Amino acid sequence: MAPLRIGDAEGDLYGTTEFGEDMTDCGTLGCGVVYKIDRSGHETVLYSFTGGADGSEGGSTLVRDAAGNLYGTTGFGGDLSCFAPFGCGVVFKIDCSGHETALQRFRGQPFDGWNPIAGLVRDPAGNFYGTTLRGGA
Predict the structure, then answer these.
(1) Which of 5, 19, 62, 65 has the smallest count of CB within 10 Å of its CB?
(2) pLDDT in tens, 75-121
(3) What is the mean pLDDT of residues 32-36?
(4) What is the reported pTM?
(5) Distance CA 53, CA 31 (A)
(6) What is the DSSP letter of 12?
(7) What CA–CA distance (Å, rounded) separates 89 from 69?
(8) How far apart are the first and last CA of the chain?
(9) Are 1 and 57 in contact (CB under 8 A)?
(10) Looking at residue 27, what is its pLDDT?
(11) Cα 136 from Cα 69, distance rounded (Å)
(12) Residue range 14-39: average pLDDT?
């Protein structure tokens, strides 16, 4: 999956990678990162996924709110008892200081879907909408 990026008013770009960073995690491929590229082309890793409760294999589009928080999904990680040992994915938030919060840890059937790789859409009221690749009736 190609990395998808969003921008801010200063011309910085934000995106995710499916793999990379600490290559000892996630089967020696790395678990993925959330990054920023400034106007001069300098990259900063804002968050490195660990493959645990925080998620792994980002690679989705990001949504940015007015406060600068970033939201997205990972295809795996979260509740590691779901699709053990990989997990079923998370919806995450990265705040401006780089702190990650898993807002939703998917649990698979019969609770909800799993593998939310398509990203999120946010409405004006702040609600998020998305889809999962797997699960459902």
Answers:
(1) 65
(2) 999 999 999 999 999 999 999 999 999 999 999 888 899 999 888 99
(3) 93
(4) 0.90
(5) 12
(6) -
(7) 19
(8) 26
(9) no
(10) 72
(11) 30
(12) 84
Mean residue pLDDT across the chain: 89
Residues 70 and 135: their CA atoms lie apart, in Å, by 26
Q: Tell me which amino acid residue 45 is.
A: V
Task: Supply the DSSP string of 75-95, one letter for each residue.
Answer: SB-SSTTTTTTT---EEEEE-
With contact defined as beta carbons under 8 Å apart, do 82 and 108 qualify? yes
What is the distance between the alpha carbons of residues 39 and 24, in angstroms, rounded to a whole number? 31
Alpha-carbon span 27 to 39, nearest angstrom: 33
Contacts of 49 (CB under 8 A, 6+ apart): 21, 26, 31, 32, 33, 55, 56, 57, 58, 74, 77, 100
Full set of structural domains in the chain with CATH? 1-132 (2.130.10.10)
Q: Looking at the chain, how many residues does it have?
A: 137
